[in-house]
């Protein structure tokens, strides 16, 4: 019998809107629960315990059945997101999906290392910059990288301001061999119960242009700068 | 003595706005002259012979000096674009740049195959769909793929409508082993002498959403759908 997963939502396929797999058709499995409380979190409905009643307990078999249904049984890349999906027992789901040809990417802050990271098609580590008001445990981040073994691993840093940018430079200096993606922050994240709230896309675009200029001015040619494409196309709307 | 290149513009670094290298800092080398006349071409200033007087004859040494200056001597990926850069002798430039640690990607329609494709870090082949009013020579496209040997090769198809989408499916069926990128077309390309002309970004975004829906409805999970990010961020403006 496999462990129970707490699932906030399963949706898609749509395209991955950010990071290394931008543009790739994917089904999102968003788990409920997080060990962080980033002040600008854009997924509070999957983080704050007051929404816990909306998180369904599901077995890996049930989750896989839903992924299969949504994808028409045609294998694709599944994105495990949250909340922090690393605090949940995803190993069985990954094993089951891989046996059917599905791939798995995970988005996590790198605060919990798991053996099953090594079974991923992509481990996206998003340590949180100063603007989040969270702290980075560098030893655990390293544990995550080590746990992935040969699984492709990338870094993704959300950048709001100069302090975040300096943090991103520090992360890159600590892990020069890992690809790094920079992403302008969304200062207008949706309230947890209103996905129709307006996004200040002009402001985010301005931050994106600033971030490009910043990277170029520093000749930081190994960085890759990408926006949240889904926000540009669909705003804060959920399920796309 | 190396051959003379006809150069429309060299600019950057900025980020690559589309396709496999989206978000990557790059210097663009745009050559002048093209064997195609796509009806929706967004770079007519580098295509139409009436702008030939704006194309500077430059040696590979001169072009490399400009790339070095723009990039502050810090190696990056150089994007060869046009016009059709494959109609020009780029071999010396690529050899020279690679010796200094620079990488080279090329964007070409796949109408001319070159030995030096094998020296590229990425060959982006963009055969033109029906809406362009151009014809595809499938044998030459195959020659291009063969010429690249082990160089990473990807397909990129601009899609305006159902006929273009069907063409993209056909291209993918002919080359199932190559990664394929789909890109919504810009029906408001800039006139060659006015890069401040307005872009109908809402219309392009709607086409992007349609294209995502189309791909998902077909369970075409191997396709990757990406917009022209630079147009979203900077409109038709040149040099960014």
From TrEMBL, chains A, B:
Keyword Disulfide bond belongs to the record: no
Binding-site positions, Mg(2+): 43
Pathway stated in the Swiss-Prot or TrEMBL entry: Purine metabolism; 7-cyano-7-deazaguanine biosynthesis
Residues reported in the UniProt entry to bind substrate: 15-17, 30, 81
Cofactor binding, per record: Binds 1 [4Fe-4S] cluster. The cluster is coordinated with 3 cysteines and an exchangeable S-adenosyl-L-methionine.
Cofactors that this protein relies on: [4Fe-4S] cluster; Mg(2+); S-adenosyl-L-methionine
Alphabetical keyword list: 4Fe-4S, Iron, Iron-sulfur, Lyase, Magnesium, Metal-binding, Queuosine biosynthesis, S-adenosyl-L-methionine
Residues that, per the record, bind S-adenosyl-L-methionine: 40-42, 83, 126-128
InterPro entries with a match to the protein in the record: 7-CO-7-deazaguanine_synth-like, Aldolase_TIM, Deazaguanine_synth, rSAM, rSAM_sf
Binding site for [4Fe-4S] cluster: 34, 38, 41
Family: Belongs to the radical SAM superfamily. 7-carboxy-7-deazaguanine synthase family.
Subunit structure: Homodimer.
Protein name per UniProt: 7-carboxy-7-deazaguanine synthase
Gene that encodes the chain: queE
């Amino acid at each position: 019998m496999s462990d129970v997963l707490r699932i906030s939502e399963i949706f898609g396929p749509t395209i991955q809107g950010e990071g290394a797999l931008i543009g790739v058709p994917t089904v999102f499995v968003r788990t409920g629960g997080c060990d962080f409380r980033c002040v600008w979190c854009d997924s509070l409905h999957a983080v704050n315990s007051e929404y816990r009643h909306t998180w369904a307990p599901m077995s890996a078999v049930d989750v896989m059945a839903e992924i299969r249904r949504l994808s028409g049984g045609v294998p694709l890349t599944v994105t495990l997101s949250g909340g922090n999906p690393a605090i949940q027992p995803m190993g069985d789901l990954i094993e089951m999906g891989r046996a059917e040809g599905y791939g798995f990417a995970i988005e996590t802050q790198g605060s919990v290392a798991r053996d099953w990271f090594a079974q991923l098609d992509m481990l996206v580590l998003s340590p949180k910059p100063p603007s989040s008001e969270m702290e980075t445990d560098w030893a655990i981040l390293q544990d995550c990288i080590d746990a992935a073994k040969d699984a492709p691993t990338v870094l993704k840093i959300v950048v709001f301001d100069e302090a975040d940018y300096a943090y991103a430079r520090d992360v890159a200096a600590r892990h020069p061999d890992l690809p790094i993606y920079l992403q302008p922050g969304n200062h207008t994240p949706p309230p947890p119960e209103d996905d129709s709230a307006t996004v200040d896309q002009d402001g985010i675009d301005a931050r994106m242009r600033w971030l490009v200029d910043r990277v170029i001015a520093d000749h930081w040619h190994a960085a890759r700068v990408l926006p949240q494409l889904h926000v540009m196309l669909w705003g804060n709307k959920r399920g796309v």
